[in-house]
Amino acid sequence: MKIARFGKIGSERPAVMISDNKAVYVDSLIKDWNRDELEAGALKKVRSADLSLLESFDIAGLRIGSPVARPTKLICIGLNYARHAAESGMTPPPEPVVFMKAPDCLVGPNDDIVIPPNSTATDYEVELAIVIGKRALYLKSEAEARDYILGYSIGQDVSERHWQIERAGQWVKGKSFPTYNPMGPVIVTGDEFEPDDVRVYCTVDGEKRQDSRTSDLIYGISHIVWYVSQFMELHPGDIINTGTPEGVGFGFKPPKYLRAGQEVITGIEGIGEIRSKTVAHS
């Protein structure tokens, strides 16, 4: 199943894709794709319904919202691709590097990326995003981790490198600006997607910047979910960005950071593409 949300900001409606171009709204069955509804069995309710009885619509021209509404947590794993760690000049970490983004920096997949005032170091990071499907805490083994995953989506972990790296303190400051996490266009449920060896890529104005596969992950999907559950309770709708491959802007010499007026295309094999325009803060 491919889960989506459509509508203007603040008025999105939950939907399910029935083809590449058509969907059905499911707000007659659930209120939204969010934590409360997922905890109450939203996925099971929608799966058990006869969606052919619902009127389909063409998605062309509609705004796509983030596929999950108001997640409790937006968690990130840093330095999790072997070649990205190498381009950063850092040794692969002995355990997953975990940091947070402000959840309200989450936006729709094709919404604008707003470059903050005076920023000259806004960067792009394609990431495979895990969406949690049920509460997970102190999982006993990696083997059970997949049972707690709702599905997967495309995350664009936009980063402001000056605030992330050059200022004192933790990375969260460079990660949490408004619009700094486009996500979508859908969540592909775990029964329809195999995440362990898929292509992930990012282009800026048509120039290929990142092009890798999730097989280059240092810590895989199951390990990440198991590991995070050892010190943090995961709730339905929580998002984990699993890390970015080589080719980020700050890895070039000189760096290739984003500026207003560019188009960023972020794609993952088996999920699709998202397209973001960069605009200056006003």
What does this structure look like?
The protein is mainly beta. The protein has two domains: 2-58, no CATH class; 74-280, Fumarylacetoacetase-like, C-terminal domain (Fumarylacetoacetate hydrolase, domain 2), CATH 3.90.850. Helix content is 12%, strand content 32%. The protein has helices at 35-39, 42-48, 82-87, 161-166, 221-229; strands spanning 2-6, 13-17, 22-25, 56-58, 74-78, 97-101, 106-107, 113-115, 122-123, 126-132, 149-156, 159-160, 181-189, 199-204, 207-213, 239-241, 263-268, 272-280. The strands form three sheets. Strands 1, 2, 3, 4, 5, 6, 7, 10, 11, 13 and 16 form an eleven-stranded mixed beta sheet that branches. The radius of gyration is 18 Å and the shape is globular. It starts with a strand and ends with a strand.
Topology:
Elements: E1 2-6, E2 13-17, E3 22-25, H1 35-39, H2 42-48, E4 56-58, E5 74-78, H3 82-87, E6 97-101, E7 106-107, E8 113-115, E9 122-123, E10 126-132, E11 149-156, E12 159-160, H4 161-166, E13 181-189, E14 199-204, E15 207-213, H5 221-229, E16 239-241, E17 263-268, E18 272-280
Parallel strand pairs: 5-16, 7-13, 8-18
Antiparallel strand pairs: 1-2, 1-13, 2-3, 3-4, 5-6, 9-12, 10-11, 10-16, 11-13, 14-15, 14-17, 17-18
CATH topology of the largest domain: Fumarylacetoacetate hydrolase, domain 2
> Termini separation (Å)?
39 Å
Helix fraction by DSSP (H/I, runs of at least 4): 10-25%
In terms of quaternary structure, the protein is: single chain
Shape: globular
Radius of gyration, in Å, reads 18 Å
Mean pLDDT: 96
* Main sheet properties: 11 strands, mixed
| Annotated CATH homologous superfamily of the largest domain | Fumarylacetoacetase-like, C-terminal domain
Number of strands: 18
**Given the structure, what is the number of helices?**
5
Strand content: 25-35%
Architecture of the largest domain, CATH level 2? Alpha-Beta Complex
Number of domains: 2
Helix-and-strand structural type: mainly beta
Catalogue the unreliable spans: none
Order of helices and strands: EEEHHEEHEEEEEEEHEEEHEEE
**CATH C-level of the largest domain:** Alpha Beta
Keywords: Lyase, Metal-binding
InterPro entries: FAH, Fumarylacetoacetase-like_C, Fumarylacetoacetase_C_sf
Family: Belongs to the FAH family.
Protein name: Ureidoglycolate lyase
